[in-house]
Amino acid sequence: AGAAGAPTPQLRHEINRVGVVGTGTMASGIVEVFAKAGYDVTFVGRADDKVAGVVAAITKSLDKAVSRGKLDEDGRAGVLGRLTGSTERTALADADIIVEAIAEDLDIKLALFADLDRIAKPGAILATTTSSLSINACAAATARPKDVIGMHFFNPAAVMKLVEVVTADDTSVEVDETVRALCFATGKHPVSCGDRAGFIVNALLFPYLNDAIKLDEAGDATRADIDDALKATGLPMGPFQLLDVVGNDVSLAIQQSLVETFGHAGWQPAPTLVQLVAEGKLGRKTGEGFHTY
Ligand code: 3HC
């Protein structure tokens, strides 16, 4: 079911093949989500080793599920058999929906959307997983803004249920309904939001994470104790553990977009966040961030 009292959304477009652009943490998790739900998935990366990296990451995740008795060998083979990796965007031509999860850089996204507009078949849904850029801007890079929508997954995408479904000014009601139905079909929990900086969750979560960094900078409590305290309130992770999962580059981009939009002086990115990004200490993905792995 949808939000309380709301009718259950229906798939108003037939979805058989899903396209994913990107090979990073989010893209890999999203490929895994769709393939596990039974969809054929074509994913596109910039180089063969990056494409192979996605297959390796999903294989590792499936092996873990098999070892925990949550998946059998046939299920594992089925998921891997539904994956098609490519280094050519033209491989996305027969996808019914294309979800992009590439770099959080507006110029790169706009060039991609212009490309997808040329490549995607008529009626294909074009979704972005951006967490800090405008869906309207992505839509304006195409001649089919009614088919463009935001699908904001959370990290780790294979585990987190929430997807913020973000409609831009021209997104059609059919596309919105289909994407929400697709979320349910993949075991996700869609929540609707308009195209505003941070959507719902990040607008509330990142000022808190930024404040945790400032608390550490003030020197009255250690990172370990701050993490311990928040975990003990029942959160799954403390703020520094979560920052390292999200990636400091992503966190900095989100915090900057919140400051630019809402202008709260107190939301300026904490100096340590800026410094860690400059040093390439991005979190778990680089082996060091607020903690060392
Ligand atoms: N892929 C697939 N499965 C995974 C996984 C991954 N990357 N990571 C964990 N899992 C599975 C495990 O296999 C396990 O499954 P099981 O219990 O059914 O066998 C289950 O998830 C729990 O994992 P673990 O036991 O290893 O560890 P935890 O219980 O500590 O859970 C966690 C890990 C789910 C990451 C949990 O710590 C958590 O929920 N953390 C908070 C994450 C969060 O808040 N994310 C949102 C960040 S904001 C964001 O993403 C927005 C963006 O715009 C930046």
Automatic annotation (TrEMBL):
Record-annotated membrane-spanning stretches: none
Source organism, top-level taxon: Bacteria
Domain 3-hydroxyacyl-CoA dehydrogenase C-terminal: 198-293
GO-annotated molecular function: 3-hydroxybutyryl-CoA dehydrogenase activity; NAD+ binding
Keywords for this protein: Oxidoreductase
Similarity remark: Belongs to the 3-hydroxyacyl-CoA dehydrogenase family.
Protein name (database record): 3-hydroxyacyl-CoA dehydrogenase family protein
Gene source species: Aeromicrobium endophyticum
